[in-house]
Each structure stands twice: as C-alpha cells, then as structure tokens.
Amino acid sequence: MFRRTFWFTAGAAAGVWATTKVNRKIQQLTPESLAAQAANKAVEAGHRLKDFALDVRAGMVQREAELGEALGLDAAPPADRELPEPRRRAALGPTPHKTTTTFSSRTISYNRNEDH
User: Distance between CA atoms of 62 and 55, rounded to whole angstroms?
Assistant: First the structure.
C-alpha cells in the first residue's frame, strides 16, 4: 500500500512540474513576450555598441596623443611662420577622353562620365 501511495504522489508531482514547465514555455512564446524579449535584446545591443564606440574613441584620443608626442606635434607652431597661399585650379576645358563614332545618321559617344 505504501509503495502505491509513493508512486501516485511521485507521478502527481511529476505531472504538476511538467504542466508548470509547459505553461511557462508557452507564455514565453506568445507574440507579446517575443516582442518584449526582442526589444530588450535590442536595447542591450545598443548599450554595448555605445560602450564600444566610447572605448574606440578613448583609444583613438590616447593613440593620437602618443603619436603627437612621438612626432613632436604637441609644440605650438612658431608665430613668425605664415601659411602658404591657397592653390588655384586651372579652368576645366573639354574632356580629353571623349570619343565619338558616327554610323550613318547616329552618333555614339564613348564617354563613360557623360550623363545619359
């Protein structure tokens, strides 16, 4: 008699445990729950990307300082030094690579940069 009671109780406990487990899993798979989980993951990923960007920026500043120190760029430029005159571009003329071929009454242009 004790043996039957034990197995009945063990079976009932296993059934309750399995039912609870299945119900929790079903609730996790509802569209609202999946949307909330996706939103949480997106927020976490955003925070990680922001932290990564801040770390990269801090590393860049540190490395630039190291390079500036190694190259002697930290010193202020001399006051008597003037900037060079700005360069002027020559006027643009016709495109030198334009080639045309005429077949009877049609003209075909081989200029790849020409708008069609």
Answer: 11
